[in-house]
Design goal:
GO terms for molecular function: lipase activity. Keywords: Signal. One of its GO terms (biological process) is lipid catabolic process. It comes from Stylonychia lemnae. This is Lipase. By secondary structure, this protein is an alpha/beta fold. The chain has a single domain, classed as Alpha/Beta hydrolase fold, catalytic domain (Rossmann fold). It contains 12 helices and 13 strands. The strands form 3 sheets. Strands 1-2-4-3-5-8-11-12-13 form a 9-stranded mixed sheet, with helices on both faces. The N terminus is likely disordered. The structure holds 2-acetamido-2-deoxy-beta-D-glucopyranose (NAG) (5 copies). One 2-acetamido-2-deoxy-beta-D-glucopyranose (NAG) binds next to α4.
Length: 347
């Protein structure tokens, strides 16, 4: 209780120190908040996240606010916010600002924070069903509220595995409730983009120091990456990741990964950790500038184009390489050196 109170105090302080950007306002609109407050399917999830400055975004001004684009739902990474005010909690701030400057309105951009932006606790974050469910219900709320037949989804880091699970559905154990079953909603997703995801776990979780000390490394719903058996096959990886990667449901009509060779490059059997089996294509950045956060923050223009008009011929980029799904499935080890870069689940 004491920690809850101090957390509330900290967020009140943060809200007074960080004033709103004069060109747009963080948070959900009153119109969307009213919709959520009066709908029993969504009310309990506290999607407005008003206790955080930067906890949420999106909504119409009034009943006749136009929605001309496929609404985008952003899903941030571990211990982050949706649209915060500093490197540790910026979330999708720079992408949202870019989208707002390039034809999107607040009625077409949505997000609600999962978790508590608690950086010191980050290594204990695991893929709890309550997070999967909150992300899933928020997607349903946006479809319901906007009346759009499909949404686009852009996710980052730990938000990638959580949102892939939310879209694919499946059976999940919910604390104090038991198993719940979620149907896939991939038919309601036009384009899915997973940026810097940790789809095959965190290599450092194999070290006993990490495994023994952090819940985030657990083999049930954590990021335990598994071990290599005699045939170089990965076994004993986290059950959550195992089920997710073996579920053939594609995350949307189109599904893409974006990754950097300077971030989470390889799994122990030589695959790109941020690619995933059901993607159509991965876009691979090979420059030291693209760290775990920069690949989210400095690629807004590409994300927007990828959502709205993907034609391979349009992308004569020099900045990144492509990898198609079949190339990925047959991917061979790139180099042992790259493997030394640690996999990252910081945000
Ligand atoms: C935000 O959501 C919570 C839980 O749904 C609700 O109790 C609260 O009144 C909402 N805030 C506003 C400003 O409506
Ligand atoms: C409704 O909201 C839109 C912006 O989304 C605004 O242009 C319009 O003037 C508003 N209409 C009314 C009646 O307030
Ligand atoms: C406010 O948002 C605009 C984009 O809408 C951005 O260009 C500007 O840098 C932001 N200003 C601050 C102080 O955050
Ligand atoms: C996988 O886990 C089982 C049961 O804990 C264990 O016996 C086996 O040695 C593990 N396999 C590898 C390759 O570590
Ligand atoms: C990444 O770029 C370096 C040169 O900077 C090159 O040696 C390496 O082969 C590239 N990696 C891939 C996978 O193409």
């Amino acid at each position: 209780m004491k920690s809850l109170i101090s957390l509330a105090l900290i967020s009140i302080l943060a809200a007074t120190i960080h004033s709103q950007n004069s060109t747009y306002k963080r948070g959900l609109t009153d119109h969307f908040i009213r919709f959520l407050d009066t709908n029993k399917d969504y009310y309990t999830y506290n999607f407005n996240r008003t206790q955080f400055f930067g906890g949420s975004f999106g909504g119409k001004e009034n009943d006749s606010s136009p929605i001309n684009k496929v609404p985008v739902v952003f899903v941030h990474g571990a211990a982050d916010m949706l649209i915060g005010y500093g490197w540790e909690n910026d979330g999708f701030r720079y992408d949202i600002e870019y989208f707002l400057q390039n034809g999107y309105t607040k009625a077409e951009i949505y997000g609600s924070m999962w978790g508590y932006a608690d950086i010191p606790y980050e290594y204990n974050l695991k893929q709890d069903t309550e997070y999967v469910l909150a992300i899933r219900k928020f997607m349903e709320a946006v479809l319901d509220y906007t009346g759009a037949p499909k949404i686009d989804v852009i996710s980052h880091s730990m938000g990638v595995t959580l949102s892939r699970a939310a879209i694919k559905g499946g059976k999940y154990l919910l604390k104090d409730i038991g198993y719940i079953s979620l149907k896939p909603i991939n038919k309601n997703v036009r384009t899915y983009i997973g940026i810097a995801g940790v789809n095959y776990g965190v290599l450092r979780c194999q070290q006993s120091f990490y495994y023994d000390n952090f819940f985030g490394c657990n083999k049930l719903n954590g990021f335990y990456p598994g071990n290599l058996d005699k045939n170089n096959k990965v076994v004993n990886e986290s059950e959550f990741l195992h089920n997710l990667n073996n579920d053939k449901t594609k995350e949307g009509d189109q599904a893409y990964a974006m990754l950097s060779l300077y971030d989470n490059p390889l799994t122990q059997n030589g695959k790109y950790n941020s690619a995933f089996p059901t993607m159509d294509m991965a876009f691979i950045y090979n420059s030291s500038e693209y760290t775990h956060l920069v690949i989210r923050d400095k690629t807004s223009e590409f994300q927007l184009r990828l959502l709205n008009s993907y034609h391979p011929s349009e992308f004569q980029e020099t900045e990144f390489m492509f990898m198609t799904n079949s190339e990925y499935i047959h991917q061979v080890k790139v180099s042992q050196e790259d493997k030394e870069l640690e996999s990252n689940f910081l945000q």
